[in-house]
Amino acid sequence: MYFSDLGTIALILAAGFALYTIFAAAWGAQRNMPLLVKSALRSTLAVTFFLLLASAALVVSFLIHDFGVRYVAEQSSLSMLWYYTAAAFYGGQEGSLLYWSLMLSVFAAIFVFTSRRAPAVMVPYSVATLMGIELFFLFMLTTVSSPFTRVPIAPLDGNGLNPLLLDPGMLVHPPMLLMGYMSFSLPFAFAIAALITGHLNNDWLRAIRRWTLASWTIQTTGLILGAWWAYHVLGWGGYWSWDPVENAALLPWLTATAFLHSTMVQERRGMLKVWNLVLVIASFALSIFGTFEVRSGVISSVHSFAYSDIGGYFLAFLVIVIVFSSGLFLFRLPKLRPEQEFDSVVSREGVFLLNNLLLVGIAFATLWGTIFPLISAAFRGQAVTVGPPFYNQVISPLLAVLILAMGIGPLLAWRRTSTRALWKNLCVPAIGAALCALILPLVGVTDVLANIGFAICAFTAGAILYELWRGVRVRHKHGENYLFALYMLFARYRQRYGGYLVHLGMVALVVGIIGSHFFQQQQDSVLKSGQEMSIAGYRFVYFGNIDMNQSDSETVISQVQIWHDGQLLRYIYPGRTMYHNFGNQPASLISITTSGLTDLYVYLDDWSGNTQATIRVFVNPLVPLVWYGGALMLLGGVICWWPQRRRVVSTATRPSPGAAEPPRPASIEDKEAIV
Amino acid sequence: MKQRGALFLLLTLVVLVAALWSFLSLNAATHKTLDQRVQEVGAQLKCPVCQGESVADSPSLLAQQMRGSIRAQLQAGKSEQEVVQYFVNSYGPNIVWTPQWQGFTLLAWLVPIVLLLGGVGLLFLTLREWCASAPGSTNDDRQASSDDAELEPYRAQLEQELADEDVLFRHLGTEGR
Known about the structure:
The structure holds 2 protein chains of 2 kinds. Chain A folds into 4 domains: 1-161; 162-365, Four Helix Bundle (Hemerythrin (Met), subunit A); 418-486, no CATH class; 493-498 and 507-652 and 662-675, no CATH class. Chain A is 62% helix and 11% strand. Chain A has 21 helices and 10 strands. Chain A is globular and about 85 Å long. By secondary structure, chain B is mostly helical. Chain B has helices at residues 2-30, 34-44, 61-75, 80-91, 106-133, 140-165, 167-174. Chain B starts with a helix and ends with a helix.
């Protein structure tokens, strides 16, 4: 018996338990049989256990190089380092499906363990939905796409992983992104449970918000890591190319972001229930669409590692998801009435609606651009290309308005804001931004679009920082020192200030994008030993090539010096590695030197002998801000998500003297916003 | 008074910025170098032998030759549009990196724009409806102040209780009413 047999058995058992969970949970909830529901929850844990077992079996098969397993032979080879061998687990389609379902079951287990906090009526339906999704993946894994299929005669050595995947990024980016896709199942399960039971109260909202926040943070990490990996590996000097697969990962992120904002309206004001459910369901459907798109290869993409014939199944699953949730939705629509009415457009609700329109607009434009080649091929029989300029032109104006709204929105109060209070909050950042727009051309930013972009970013960053400063100052006046005051702000109003951090991170990221889009410089030179090239004040002196042979590959690196202002900055070694199994696809070793906020990105394009090389240099201003901004967004997401100690609401617990329970005046929220 | 001063300052700055931006854009349009024009045309064309790179960015030999051809044609006095059309004629419509503003591919541009405008319209109508149905939204100031008078005792109590919890509310309770 091989480990792979163990894996197959574990998968079948997991599928059985998943099926049992669905029926036991649904039946138990319908007939009000708590013991049956409890058994369903336990059987969810059994699914998790068997998936852990199956994954362990696959990892062990990789580590002991059991090439009798077809998937192991396709994805790994004897010469690979052990951690890449283990990571090859999710390097191909079968393994990534297994990883997806493993993570789903782990999250389901976490949900079961924390289910006491969720509204009790919904738990069984949420679990049933999660296991329904799980069952689809287990069906795929046990029938059409099993990672444990054996071949009659085991090859002596495996094929090895695609060279582009042999990078530290491989260890973090795919698991994060797949986990991000997967994690949208949880809010979806909550939404389905709410639609079945008809309960959409504030407890439900809090639970779904936290899970969505977790998904959002994971997906943000996945996207940033993906951009970082592309930047470090692909060699075209950029980090985002509007490739269909990248778009697919961005789409659920956009709708989840919209959801996180519009739930605040629901939480405070009881409005937008229908819309929020639509957003949750759309996020999940888009993440399945993304998986379908990556797997099916219907849209050509640079991510061509994972094509296969299982796209049809995903399409069918997508259709089932959409039909099922829209059916439930129409059935429940009469119950989803808003509780409160709107007061004034210049209030935070209004900006949230605008935010939603923009985010959904960006998501739609991205989706439309991604599938337009398919539409064109279907109706006209003619392929068209929808490249980055399309997305840049359609999306950047929307993004600009979004960033602007990000600066104004948090300063507006709920319900209604007096123009005077608003002006008081906005005049400082607005004047700052205008000054910034005037000064920038003097320091060389003569491009109008870039100037507008920077001015908007300056405005929003100014508005957020000014707001932070005023909060800190108020606390400081009451005897806290500045640092402690800042800490207290974050500790007290975690959601709010975590959100500000995310916004600041987003502004930094956009500044980075503007910088690298408008001010990237690029130069290709063919150099012989001792020759040099210069670009943007940097000199690159080329010495020669070094050729190194390893057992499975050959590496060529060039030695280059970087000089700036007459000083030697450092030696760099851009190069190429050719893997014998993937001869026509040399992986590049890109040298990136960060000096201040500018990246010097050096790529060995071609070489001949030991004394000649074609060196490609990109000077990428402000790109480091993309990573800093991304990190800040993550930090903000985690702060928002971090469990809050339950604050005892004093008004509710203390016996109020005189009157009965005082109605909570809405203006206290206005005041919080003015702080 | 201080507020009005700031408003005038901002207005002056906005006028200055607007003047600057229009000056810069007019200046940029007339002072395009040949290199920039080649870059712009190249950015509209997809490199036929690469994965996901434009003619302007690609290091491949073919892209270099195409850049040379663009340069020659621009020098010969052709417009950007004519040069793009030349490449469409010789390589087929797939060479263009973005959908063109004509024929069927116009849909690629129009659908998102139309839907977005529709969304703006819908948003406007929804907001108007909500505002209209919100009670007392027309004479809101007086309404709000009478509400205020009614709620004042409750508010004072709530603020006091919140102030026990957090220093910020202590401040708020004393200011701004």
